Amino acid sequence: MIERATLGGLEFEYDTETKTIRMAGNPAIFIWVESTLAGLISGLQRSVGTERIRLSLHGGGRDGVDQDWAYICQFPTFEQGFAELTKVAAVFGWGGWELVSLDSKAQVARVRARNHWEADCQKALGVSWGSSYLGGKFAGIFQRHFGVPQCWAEQTAFASKGDEYDEFVIRPSDASLEDRVERLLATDEATKADLAVALERVRKEVEERAETEKELREKLDLIARQEEAIRALSTPIIEVWDGVITLPLMGVIDSQRAAETMTRLLDAIVHKNARHALIDLTGVEVIDTSTADHILRLVRAAELLGAQCVITGIRPAVAQTMVSIGIDLSKLVTLASLRDGLLRCMGGARAGGARPRSVDRGV
């Protein structure tokens, strides 16, 4: 169902089925000026800044006059066509327009507008940016009338500031809208503000990243200390008698752990002036060629410092593996248990004149 009404000679149609409105056959909408429209314009201004929204609105008005110009051209003279256009504009909510003066030879026009939506929006918001969209529309119309590449509408009166009307002086301009936008982007405060915001965001991101890196370094340092503590616990070196130290090995012995173990054992031999080192394999359940080679290197390194090594606690399965893979044990002193090794070393220490001590120290 189509509902129709006529206002100011223009026909309005409302389609109750599709919920759409047409004015003079064109799709249209009705919108609250002081709330919805004002809110839309205000949101755009906050996003891009006053100067850029002024230029954007001016460009939008300039580029949207094709139908206005086509309507003007239906009449014998420009003045007549513009006068008829003002009647249509008023019905569409663009207020009352008045062509105050027109000098086609000098290419200067003066136009006034009263009670139009753009000024009403700014009054509702309590601001005064100027009626740039309406000014752009006038610039587009007179650009065609003067037959020049571009015109600029300079606003000389502001209804949003309390004047009776908005007034515009329109004349050709050497600077295109695009030139003005380009200059604005290079110098305007909005661009500087955008840059400041971007720099502040970068600064915060750098600070956050630095803080994150600091936390990660602290966690890595903690992990390193924990690993060092775990390594120390996994390869404890204990002085069990004067000149006798013991090194219990447990778990899998890889290249890194073997190197760390050798360093700790050799340091302990020098620090404790040890003549005997018990290497206990009770905690080693599986052995391979690489592990056996690490143990042999450990024994030879200790002997170079003058300490005799005794291997204790070899499990039956480990012993079978060592024999099957052909490890030469002829130069190693091996005993069944740590107790046997300790008794042997204590006997050797006593024979060497060492005095027993009852207090053990860990390294």
TrEMBL record:
Residues 234-345 form the STAS domain. Keywords: Coiled coil, Phosphoprotein. The keyword Acyltransferase does not apply. The keyword Ribonucleoprotein does not apply. SUPFAM superfamilies: SpoIIaa-like. Gene3D superfamilies: STAS domain. PROSITE patterns: STAS. This is STAS domain-containing protein. It comes from Polyangium spumosum. InterPro entries: Bact_StressResp_Reg, STAS_dom, STAS_dom_sf. Residues 195-229 form a coiled coil.
